[in-house]
Write a structure and sequence with these properties.
eight-stranded parallel β-barrel, about 600 residues, TIM Barrel, single chain, Jelly Rolls, 3 domains, seven-stranded antiparallel beta sheet
Length: about 600
């Protein structure tokens, strides 16, 4: 089947199944590289290293182009007693062993002109309305600042990623008894703004870095609150926003467009004072992840050398103060050691040369654009870049995310409406993407069936693909499985299989409904599956998406002819790990809902 490779009005991202790699992963070939010339270069930060590693290796890292570090293995989590890391909580200050090692690492960095940032992660869920807990949290944050200040660190890096589930309004821990979404937003911002206020009280000159990029979620509400606090104080160190979207999307035009997207987001979500501070004192620090991808014991490159060269060059051009390298599974390789663990050590050396050479793209157009984006000038860059910002609705929790899409692909009116809806969602307003887009969320479902590693279940033919018999039962994981009715919560645009089936990893399941049309008509199936998915319309396979992916509204646009009468729709979704589900709707050829279609769970 030939699937559309363009995006109609309302489509959120390009249909990617027909591509070996996403367009954002392909470096542009018509660019030139060279030394930075008059463009000031940022300091490249390494994520991350222990005090001992920094003390031993900082000079070698400096020779390889890395001039800053996230200090790890000191304060793992916001709940940590930083003075107890050495297993002796009674030693505080100069008598603390971890403090002494950190101070030694900082001294090495200061001597060679490198910078050091104490890294604190969010590993445990917060209780936003627990005043007693927050007294302890505020104390811990003050101690982090005291430790970093007295150890002679340059600042603090707050990694808020690992409690990402809590940044969704639909998180299972939110019951909304006695508070609204708006109340939750205000409380989240208040709590963590107060915590960081205590850090500034102790360490006014600290440079604050935060990651990752969190779209229109409560995570970004936290980061926005920190910018507001820094702006109120006119904190000299600024707040620097470290991106992960750029890890494996090295195309220079896409990376530049993403910086534009972030600046637009903060313009629309910060107060006027905070936005002026953002423009004048803050920066975007793009991150790149070259080796060791997939969290397994893999040390080899995760992208081509040309892709890494372009992504790293773009990160240098966009980073007004910093860019950064993620070193999971590749610390030793990035510093030129243990290359024998790689399949092709000579090839790895060419990647390391990219880090050392620190070349940028010298094509004049990009030099000019880089300066504008560093200055956070907001204008329409789509003509030069071919991409534009977009607010994408993503399942399973429908939290809007920041996306970059090809110019004009979403349709101006649709794009503006979605961006406005996403900003309202960000402020805590209850937004129904389901009602607006007309997604189908009532289904008969059956599963789970086994899907061995690497989504192998996608190609395994289970009985629901061979027959539609709502009274049948089949062998599934844990015993017999049967068809049952599932209706998503009223405010959800997508179907979350993790709420339906157990287990939810390395599995697959099916969903069935019927659509009735009064006449034959041309239409579009618009869907997104997490992960691999297949869709049958009237028994005919119309979508075969075998890869990992997100349940992004309108990710796939499939032209179909709906016959008159009632037609079955069968969806199969396989999952590896984490989120599992899909979003589905049928529209006319312009992407608009079809009012007279009827959906049901039984054949009419």
């Amino acid at each position: 089947m030939e699937r559309l490779r363009v995006i109609f009005a309302g489509l959120l991202i390009v249909s990617l199944a027909a591509y070996a790699v996403k367009p954002s992963e392909i470096p542009d070939s018509d660019v030139e590289y060279g030394p930075p010339g008059g463009l000031p270069m940022p300091k490249t930060i390494l994520f991350s290293a222990s005090p001992d590693q920094i003390a031993a290796d900082a000079e070698e890292w400096s020779k390889r182009g890395v001039r800053a570090f996230f200090l790890d293995h000191v304060a793992r989590d916001w709940s940590s007693d930083i003075w107890a890391t050495d297993k002796e909580p009674w030693t505080i200050g100069a008598s603390d062993a971890t403090f002494r090692k950190s101070k030694e690492a900082a001294a090495v960095c200061r001597r060679i002109g490198s910078e050091l940032f104490l890294k604190v992660a969010f590993d445990r869920f917060f209780e936003w309305f627990n005043d007693t807990q927050w007294q302890k949290i505020n104390h811990n944050f003050r101690q982090f600042a005291i430790f970093a200040r007295d150890a002679d660190c340059h600042g603090i890096a707050l990694d808020i990623e690992y409690v990402g589930d809590q940044y969704s309004f639909g998180w299972k821990g939110y019951d909304y008894k006695g508070y609204s979404r708006e109340d939750l937003v205000l409380k989240v911002r208040e709590r963590l703004r107060t915590a960081v206020s205590g850090m500034y009280d102790e360490f006014p000159e600290m440079i604050l870095l935060t990651f990752p990029d969190c779209g229109f979620s409560l995570g970004s509400a936290i980061q926005a609150a920190w910018i507001e606090e820094a702006a109120e104080r006119n904190a000299p160190g600024g707040v620097h926003y470290c991106t992960e979207h750029t890890y494996r999307n090295p195309n220079i035009r896409e990376m530049f467009a993403y910086a534009w997207t972030i600046n637009r987001f903060f313009r629309d979500t910060l107060s006027n004072r905070a936005y002026r501070y953002w423009v004048g004192s803050c920066s975007i620090a793009p991150g790149v992840w070259p080796f060791g991808f997939n969290y397994e014991s893999v040390h080899d490159p995760g992208m081509t050398r040309d892709a890494f060269r372009q992504g790293f060059a773009a990160s240098l051009m966009l980073g007004r103060r910093y860019n950064w390298i993620y070193s999971h599974n590749c610390y030793e390789q990035l510093i030129g050691r243990q290359l024998d663990l790689c399949q092709n050590p000579a090839e790895v050396e060419t990647y390391l040369k990219v880090l050392t050479d620190r070349e940028i793209v010298t094509t004049p157009k990009y030099l000019s654009l880089a300066q504008e984006l560093r200055d956070m000038r907001l204008r329409d860059y789509s003509g030069e870049l071919g991409f534009e910002p977009f607010a994408a609705c993503m399942g399973p929790d429908d939290t809007p995310s920041l996306q970059v899409v090809p110019k004009g692909s979403a349709g101006g009116a649709t794009s503006d409406v979605l961006w406005d809806m996403a900003c309202r969602h960000f402020r805590g307003e209850a937004i129904s993407f389901r009602r607006f887009f007309g997604t189908q969320t009532d289904w008969m479902v059956i599963g789970p069936f086994p899907s061995p590693e690497k989504l192998q279940g996608h190609s395994i033919v289970y009985p629901p693909e061979q027959e539609i018999d709502l009274g049948a039962e089949y062998d599934g994981i844990g015993g017999k499985v049967r068809w049952r009715e599932y209706k998503a919560p009223e405010d959800r645009a997508s179907v979350d299989f993790t709420r339906v089936f157990t287990p939810s990893e390395n599995v697959c399941a099916y969903a069935l409904c019927y659509v009735t049309s009064s006449a034959a008509r041309e239409a579009q199936i618009r869907a997104g599956t997490n992960d691999a998915g297949k869709i049958w319309l009237g028994g005919k396979l119309v979508l075969d998406y075998p890869e990992e992916g997100g349940a992004v509204l309108d990710r796939e646009v499939i032209p179909v002819t709906l016959p008159a009468g009632t037609t079955p729709i069968l969806i199969k979704v396989c999952n590896g790990v984490n989120n599992w589900g899909f979003v589905f709707r049928i529209t006319d050829v312009a992407g608009n809902p079809i009012p007279d279609l009827r959906f049901g769970l039984v054949k009419e």
